[in-house]
Amino acid sequence: MKLENISKYFYPVMGVVLVIFVWHIYVVGFDINPVVLPKPLLVLNIMIEERVLLLTEGWATFKECVYGFALALALGIPIAVALTSSKTLNLTFYPLLIGTQSVPKVAVAPIILVWFGLGFESKLVIAFLVAFFPIVIDTATGLRATPQELLDLAVSLRASRLQIFLKIQFPAALPFIFSGAKVAVTLAVIGAVIGEFIGATEGLGNLLLVANSQVDTPLAWASLVALSVLGMVMFAGVVAAERILMPWAEDH
Amino acid sequence: MVGDTCSFCELENVRKVFHRKNDEPLVAIDDVCCEIIEGELVSLLGPSGCGKTTLLRILAGLTPASDGTVRIRGKDINGPEPDFGIVFQTPNLMPWRTVLDNVLFPMEILKLKNGDARKRALDLLELVGLKGFEKVRPNQLSGGMQQRASLCRALIHKPSLLLMDEPFGALDELTRMEMNDLLLDIRRVTNATTVFVTHSITEAVYLSDQVLVFSTRPARVATRLRIDIPYPRSPELRYTEQFNKFEKLAGAALGVTR
Ligand SMILES: Nc1ncnc2c1ncn2[C@@H]1O[C@H](COP(=O)(O)OP(=O)(O)OP(=O)(O)O)[C@@H](O)[C@H]1O
Ligand SMILES: [Mg+2]
Question: Most CB atoms closer than 10 Å: which of A235, B24, B50, B184?
């Protein structure tokens, strides 16, 4: 048990350490110009020095992602429920949904900026747009994949449609919803950064662009690391929610 | 039927045809007639794929018959009756509920969940040997234990008809024999009319008052056997001449013995 736990953390940490080590050796060994690739220690230094800046900008991006992702959940799940519970709705809107999904979000982003401005709202909308689709599709798949025998059991007891939904279909779909949410949350970060790249006054993506244009490569790298930490934090949040809401998925 | 016995369920010329896409219609059940007496345990014995599950679903009101009449307590059935209990071919428990909450599921749906229901669920779990596992989730139980829990779930609302679809088919021989005795014990206590689907000749003869042997698809009643061995029955019964005689008769109807 204990040994297992140690190796669970030991190997991933060793992986990261190894990559950082190779990075360091490469920069030092080949005498690489810090403008091209800074040493890991230099990036770490900048991160500590500029921690207030990184945290402020990080907080801005974090809010864009969280709100976009939350909106995707709040709209995506009910829409999936509507699509799976009505044949007509499904026939009318499912093809449309697939169709709109094939429009590349990066191409839509400039239009969104025109509509919603340079501020927080446009990033939220782009994050929402990219996070929405996997949530709808996975939730719909999950709701359709309810084991037939469980439905039969409920029908044999003359359960109402609401009872069937709340007590069987929804909990049975939860694993699907969470796998959609995990994809969505990573996409939400990408969406927010795309929005910031196109035009913004704050956020880590904006900071990265500014640092790059000033040839401040270490700061650009620091923003990049901060962004990936942000992504991991959001992902961990979803995993934590999964553990709390689906305790049965762990114990086997 | 005879004497003061009272008919619980009658099937007359029941037929079931499945209309399939891009394929000719499939006759699953053809012209089945039978009568089930109140309190009786009837086995439906037949080869795999002959239509046993389909017939059970018709009795449960989950699938409508294409033709013929199904009468339960003198009334034509249309749709499921909530006072039936069903045990499916697989245990079919909800992984997100504890064993106890799985057993209480029917009571929740019927809005009868209260202290008494809880007490009854705990008693049933004890009866099937799952005491101490009430708070455990199904994925921590063995297949046999899951099927026991599923049996409790089917019994919790005191069903007047218990429908069981090869409930022990996936269990090993020893567990299966144990479960057979458990079922007979339970039946002595509850007195529920029981329809039991199986493809095991021994199981059918051991458990039943009446065995309906079905032909290969489309299912028809090939033979009706009345097993007049008194209850309680014990495992040694399986090795008696009287028992083997019934097994032979059922086997002959299925075409496996001469
Ligand atoms: N919904 C359906 N649509 C089309 N055909 C079906 C349907 N349900 C069952 N069948 C067909 O009806 C026949 C009888 O099926 P059924 O499940 O009743 O068999 P069974 O006797 O229970 O078999 P087993 O012992 O393997 O469980 C099979 O040939 C099956 O393919
Ligand atoms: Mg079957």
Answer: B50
**Residue ranges per domain, chain B?**
7-83+159-254, 95-157
Q: Does domain B7-83+159-254 have CATH number 3.30.1360.120?
A: no
Q: Is the CB of B20 under 6 A from ligand 1?
A: yes
- Same domain, yes or no, for A2 and A45? no
If you count them, how many residues does chain A have? 252
Q: pLDDT for A121-133, tens place per residue?
A: 999 999 999 999 9
Our count of domains for chain A comes to 2
Q: What is the pTM of this model?
A: 0.85
The reply to whether A107 and A216 lie within a common domain is yes
Q: Which residue has the least CA distance to atom 12 on ligand 1?
A: B28
For tokens 């455990």, what's the residue?
Answer: B136
Going from the C-alpha of B205 to that of each of B168, B172, B252, the distances in angstroms are 15, 18, 14
Closest by Cβ to A150, choosing from B80, B92, B157 = B92
Interchain contact, A156 vs B96, CB within 8 Å: no
List the one residue out of B104, B102, B146 whose CA is nearest residue B128.
B146
* Lowest mean pLDDT, pick from A49-53, B2-6, B117-121: B2-6
- The answer to whether the CB of B204 falls within 8 A of the CB of B238 is no
Same domain, A10 and A115: no
Residues of A in contact with B112 (CB under 8 A): none
Q: Which ligand is nearest to the CA of B46?
A: 1
Range of the domain at A147: 39-245
Our mutation pick for probing the ligand 1 site, out of B23, B45, B48, B50, counting the most ligand atoms within 8 A of Cβ, is: B50
Render pLDDT for B4-16 as a digit per residue (tens, 0 to 9). 567 888 898 899 9
pLDDT digits (tens, 9 = 90+) for B24-66: 889 888 888 989 999 999 999 998 888 999 999 999 999 999 9
| C-alpha span between A79 and A73 (Å, rounded) | 10
A248 vs B: CB within 8 A: yes
Q: Which ranges constitute the DSSP H helices of B87-172? A: 99-103, 105-109, 115-127, 143-155
The DSSP letter of residue A168 is: I
